[in-house]
Amino acid sequence: MDIKKVVVIGSGTMGSGIAAQVANAGIMVHLLDISSEVSNKACERIKNLRPPLLMEESFSSLIIPGNIKDDIDQISDADWIVEAVVERIDIKKSIYAEIDSRRKASALVSSNTSSIPLKILSENMSEDMKKFFCITHFFNPVRYMRLLELVVTPLNDHSKIQELAKFCDEKLGKSVVVCNDSPGFLGNRVGVYAMQVAMTEAFNLNLSIEEADAIIFMVDVTDGVTGMDEIIVDLLRRSQKPVFLTINKVDNAMRVEGTMEFYSLGFENFYSISSINGGGSGELLDDLVKSLPEEEIRTDDPLPRFAVVGRPNAGKSSFINALIGKDRYIVTDIAGTTRDSIDTQYNRFGFDFNLVDTAGIRRKAKVKEDIEFYSVMRSVRAIEYSDVCLLVVDGTRGFDGQVQNIFWLAHRNNKGIVILVNKWDLVEKDTNASKAFEEMIRKEISPFVDVPIVFISSLSKQRIFKAVETAVEVYKNRSYRIPTKAFNNVMLPIIEKTPPPAYKGKYVKIKFCTQLPTNHPQFAFFCNLPQYLKDPYRRFLENKLREEYNFNGIPIQIFFRKK
After folding, report:
1. Which of 278, 250, 279 is nearest to 13 (CA)?
2. Which of 74, 119, 333, 474 makes a 20 to 30 Å CA pair with 514?
């Protein structure tokens, strides 16, 4: 096919890239936009962009800027007309009407759209233009991305389309893939499928948005406005949350011009930033802080907080989903899906408390991404602010070293602990399997062995309500208060029967004991020589306390004070 003149309408990121690649083939191209000023700046951007879009600087002379109003007649003798404006059907169709009335009979017309079907774009075209109209979907950056999707319909003159495909292959250096007219096209369906599914599920479940006070919607100036951006904007508008449109990668003055394209998304203001050097972030943060509520809606929540913690992919989110009866949290086989610590109020069967889903905690040496580092920090913070920790253990992996670290983290913070052995339905077991597994766990957590262990399956909902009952019981144990008189009546006879051992010929006499007014069990024993009381006797007293009172699942602290 002999293409000697090309017209590209739209000088944004994609339009500029297409024009530059046509110039690289040694072919004259007219680059049109709403004003000559915009197209001139686009030409400057093409010459100065790094990595370069032009193979040689001299090729820039083949790109002639102009505007749609004064230079639209350039399409009358063009061999190929490419539309690369914003993803709005009304704007595109108005341009097609101008092209239809001015193009020569043999001229090819194509759109660079990434999301709008060919059938919709060609609705109001003449029958003749429909024969020569297709979608040439380039990928950014055009010079370096070899894939070109060529979308056709049965109405096309296929001989002409084949000639265009050959031209794009031989002259533009593209690997052409002919696609049917399906929404999203091939590259989008294959490359963006997982992201679309995750995003759709997140919006359906109102994840993050529901908990957020404000939303930062970040786009890429190098990609321009995409069909995905339009979808996200539509979903964000439904949230009724303050949205801050943030254009990233505006690293230099040449890229500032590319931000104008994002006005088409319908936001009155936007913020141009550069994540690599922090440019422009100050104004964004100032306005973001102003939009946040001055006070927390709930500063002192009376409801107990139960934090569900454990290794990645142990089944924490699945457990909460099974409890509340709906897919509140995204669950996949990929470890690390949960990033944030999110509260969910549970009010069923007489129970009323907050369940906190947390990100899985791995060893520090295994954490390579910054986002995972902060996710782990939020999980640790969730443990610190909880009343009871439900430690979910993957029954197929066992009670390994990292699970033990999480257990002792909860213990050091004096939290109630319930161990949930999940995925028990997947474990090959005999009659004594659960007893052997429990003994193994208690051996690893010694000497703090007074901890409830429940074997569950989130998938089959086996014993999940037993887990809740146990957690509530542990919370009550943590809040239990013993009257001082009754406490002395029980403990002093035990101490008199088994007094502390003598140390260097000196005898320790415990005269009085009491429970301290704290939010977890702490006990003070007053004696004449507290410095001579060692850990073995401390453990003896703790064991006697646990025999006399129900502190199942609760760490106990004992202090010796001089009297």
Report:
1. 250
2. 474
113, HSE (Cβ side, Cα atoms, 13 Å): 29
pLDDT of residue 327: 57
Closest Cα to residue 524, out of 487, 490, 550?
487
Residues 180 and 200 in one domain: no
- Residue-range definition of the domain harbouring residue 493: 484-562
355 forms bridges with which residues in the sheet?
306, 344
CA separation for the pair 113, 282 (Å, rounded): 34
Digit-coded pLDDT (tens) for 65-89: 999 989 999 999 999 999 999 888 8
Question: What is this structure's pTM?
Answer: 0.48
Distance CA 333, CA 315 (A): 9
Rounded Cα–Cα distance for residues 514 and 526 (Å) = 9
Q: Is 296 among the domain residues?
A: no
Report residue 366 as tokens: 């295994």
Residue 151 is encoded by which pair of tokens?
């979308």
Answer yes or no: is 340 within a domain. yes
Centroid of chain to Cα 327 = 17
By residue count, the chain amounts to: 563
Task: Return the SS3 of 317.
Answer: helix
- 300, part of any domain: no
Could you tell me if 151 and 48 lie in one domain?
yes
Does 437 lie in the same domain as 334?
yes
List the alpha helices (DSSP H) in 413-501. 433-444, 464-478, 484-497
In a domain, 298, yes or no: no
Claim to verify: residue 382 and residue 507 sit in the same structural domain: no
Tens digit of each residue's pLDDT (9 = 90 or more) over 13-45: 889 999 999 999 999 999 999 999 999 999 998
DSSP one-letter code for 500: P
Helices and strands counted in the chain (H then E): 19, 20
